Amino acid sequence: MADSATSRQRPSLGQMRSNSFLQDHQQYKPPINQTIGEVLSAQLDEVTLTNPIKPDPERVTDSGIIHSIFNHQSNQLPQGTPRIVATIFYKSANPVHPHYHPDASPALQPGDKLPSPHIPAGSAPSVDIEKIPREPPAPEPEPLDHIYGPYVSQLCLTNFLQTLESLPTPYQRTNTSHRCLDREEHPRVVEVTISPPPNPAYLSFSDLRKHESIWRFEREWNVEVVLQQESVFRRHKRLAVFDMDSTLIENEVIDEIAKFIGVEKEVSEITERAMNGELDFSASLKERVGLLKGVPADVFDKLKSVITIAKGARELCRALKALGFKMAVLSGGFQPLAEWLAGQLGLDYAVANHLEIDPVTQTLTGKLVESKPIIDAAQKRTLLKSIAAENNIPLSQTMSVGDGANDLLMLHAAGLGVAWRAKTKVQLEAPTRINGESLTDILYLLGLDNEDISELGKATE
Known about the structure:
Elements: H1 2-9, H2 21-25, H3 36-47, H4 57-62, E1 66-67, E2 84-90, H5 145-148, H6 154-165, E3 175-180, E4 189-195, H7 205-209, H8 212-221, E5 223-229, H9 232-235, E6 239-242, H10 253-261, H11 264-275, H12 281-290, H13 299-303, H14 313-322, E7 326-334, H15 335-345, E8 349-353, E9 355-358, E10 363-368, H16 377-390, E11 398-402, H17 408-413, E12 416-420, H18 424-429, E13 432-434, H19 441-444, H20 450-459
Parallel strand pairs: 1-3, 6-7, 6-11, 7-8, 11-12, 12-13
Antiparallel strand pairs: 2-4, 2-5, 3-4, 9-10
C-alpha cells in the first residue's frame, strides 16, 4: 500500500506536458516555508561570516596603480626609487584654436568659417604646408581646454596620468603626486612627480620627452610639458647662462644696426636662416657683418634706446641672484650691448663678438676682430663649461637658456637646457622647450612656487 502511495507522488512523464517549462520543473524544487523577512535576515547573517575565497584587499591594492590625487598612501615604493618631475604649463596666451565655435562665442556669427588646419610651430622643419612633400597634416585634436576650462584642470591632470600609463612599457605600479605652483584655484602651472619612471630599457628618458603621446596630450589640452629627472640638483642650480638676442632682449641686434644703413631685409633673412640652422653660423655672421661696413661706431649707444628687455628678464635675474646664482650672457651678438645688458640685469659675465672699428673714421670696417674668438655654438658650450669650472660648479647644477640653433650645444651640455620661444628646429631638438609670456616661468622648473618667487623678489628690494 505504501509503495503505491509513493509511486503516486513521483512525477510521471505524462505530468510534464504543460505549456510552461518552468512550471514543469517546479516539482523538483524544495518548498519555501520562509517569509521574506526571514530570508533577508539570513542573508545579513551570512555577511558576517568569513569568506575563505575573499581576496586580500592589500594584495589587490598592491597590484594596482596608486595615484596620490586620490589621497591613498598605502603600499609606498621603496626609498630611493627614481622619480621624474613633469611641469605642466597652460598656454593661456596662445590658445590652440583662437576661433571658438559660434555656439560658444558671442563674437562669432553662425556661418563663420574656421581657419584651415596648419602645422603647429615646433612640430616640423617647416610650418609651410606647401613646402612639405607629404600628405596634408592630420586634423588638430579637439581643444579640450575650451570645454573643461582654460587652466590645468583636474581632468587634464588625470588624462596626463593616463597618458603616461598607456606608454609601451612593461606594466608597473606607479605613485604620483602633484602640487599647484601658481595658485590652487584654476592653476596655470602644475608640478607632477611620477615614480618610478618608465624602464629605460624599453623607453629612454630622452625618447619619453619627445613621445608622440605626450605631444598629442599637449595639443589636446593646450599645455606644454617639461620633464626632468628628479634630484637635489634639479632644485639647486648655481649657474645660469643666457643667449642675448630674442632671449634676454626681444631684438636681434644685428638687424637693428642694419636699419641704419637700409640693408635690414638682406641681413634679417640671413639671420633667420642662421638661427634655424640652415647656414653655418660663423660664415653667416661674417657675411652679415660685411654689410655693416661704414656704420658709425657710436651706433651701439644709439641702439640702447630701442633695445627692449624681454618680459620677466629682470625679475628672473633678481630671483636667481637672490638664490646665489652666477649668471652670464653668451651672445652671438656684439660685446658693447652684451656688457650694457649685463649691467642692466646684474649679470656676472658678458661675452659676445667684437666688431673691428676704423680708428681714423670711427666707423665699422665690416670685419670681426681677429684676435677674439667667434661666439658660435661650440664656443658657447666651451664658455659654459669654463665658467662652471672657474666657480667649482658641476654641470648638473647649471642652466642655459637660448632660442637659436647656435644655442643647441650649450642647451644639451647644461643640467637644464631651456629653449625659450625658440626657432622651430631648436624646439624639435632641445631637451626642454617653453613658449610662455614671461621668463619667470623658468623659475617653476626649479621647483619654486609663487610664494617662493614673491619672497625672492622682496629679498632684492
